[in-house]
Predict the 3D structure of the following.
Amino acid sequence: MKLSFQPVAAVALATVLLGGCNAFDRLGRIGEKPELSPIENPLSAPSYRPVSLPMPPPQVAERMPNSLWRAGARTFFKDLRATRVGDILTVVINLNESGTLANSSTRTRTTSEADSITTLFGFEHQFKHFLSDQATNTPSVALAGKTSNAGTGAIARTEAVNLRLAALITQVLPNGNLVLDGHQEVRVNFELRELRLLGVIRPEDIAPDNTISYDQIAEARVSYGGRGQMDDVQQPRYGSQLLDILLPF
């Protein structure tokens, strides 16, 4: 049997070419600081998707011409909190989480079965014509099996993110809830830190100082990472990643 290495060679060549492109790009940025992303309209980003959630039935506002209060108003004066598309509010993120999970399981199973055939519709007398002299007319079948499995696992994690982020309102849902999109980049020397936040909030949860806490954001998506020299050192080389994918052991 002849084994063809063409598919494997094609995959390896494609990976080397892709890794080479990344290497050439890094060579062109030697001695340069990571570039900041330009300020763009979040609605024009290729990854932007409008949020669609179940909405309650619309309510018709009752008009009261002689009342000092306006439907939806929170004060006698103009409300300076963010309520419209394009408004900005501050998100306070105090994320301190820790979790520990331990699990242990053991399973053992033992089976045994023995069968014998003494009569078989009278054909047992014909077995002597096909079997040797040591064989008997009472064949038997014996089965035995034993299985034992044991597993132990443990997970311990700690996460802490404490900062403030100005987010932009990109959408007002039919029930009045607001969709947030916040993006922040900070460059220190040759390392770029990037923070991204997405979520849905209620206007009623916005504090008078135009801030909102992280735990009041529904469908929150927080991404905190970066790129630069430190990130390059922490990432395995593309050759190691290729071997980690292809090698079965």
